[in-house]
Input
Amino acid sequence: MGTEFSRELKDLTYLQWAHARRSSGTAGTFLKAVDQAGEEKRYYKMSDYDSLKGVIGHECINEILADRLLKILGVEHVAYHPVHAKVKVEEKVLETWVCYSVDFKRKGESKQALDDYFDLNRMEDESRMDFVIRNGWEEYVYQMLVVDFLIMNRDRHGANMEVLKSAEGVRLAPLFDHGLSLLFSCHDDDSVRRFDAMADLKVQSFVGGQSLFENLALIPKERLPRFRRLEESDRGVIFAGLEGVLPEAHIEKAWEILWKRWNYYENLRNS
Output
């Protein structure tokens, strides 16, 4: 079930990297690239980049961890694929891990950021939550709020949710963009070990507030999503192949986050 990790080094120095849109207020530079040369359009992401230190984050691996977790839970989402690559940024050639996803639009669909769609189509004084409920998207949003709680996603801004439009109607895109989650702010073993797995860090959530715990409370008790169960044995699936890609302390803490927050949510749902 886990995404396969190939150690083969791929030459991606031909990609042109551009700044990603984000609104979390975090430091650093997050770069994206698009490759349309092959049979499928690929969207590449690089982890936090510093012009002096190079790649300093693990956001691309966070996308893989989220991908594996959501497969286990049975949540529709965009799949991310890891690539061990040579890339060229600011005329520097770097060896790092990147990830890519493929275009999730169906034939004839166009996309629009949810925040822009909301501004154009909301009723007077309509809240964002009331808007998604009126459009029949509440189940999607309830699942998203729980997923963001589990992985500690700090950046679910209005462009990290997209509306796909066609002659047949509109739908929300599968969940995507989970890089600013888990331990993305920790760059050494000491900060990883000190990190509180149950912390309620300040977050950016277009549908919701600045608290992951309070966002859970936005879901009516009887509508709390039921997922396929996360089991302790799933640890091996989620972190398969990551030896040497992530420090061991990082892997241990990331699992602590997922397991503790999963059990908190299950206790909440069953209370």
Q: What stands out?
A: Residues 10-102 form one domain.
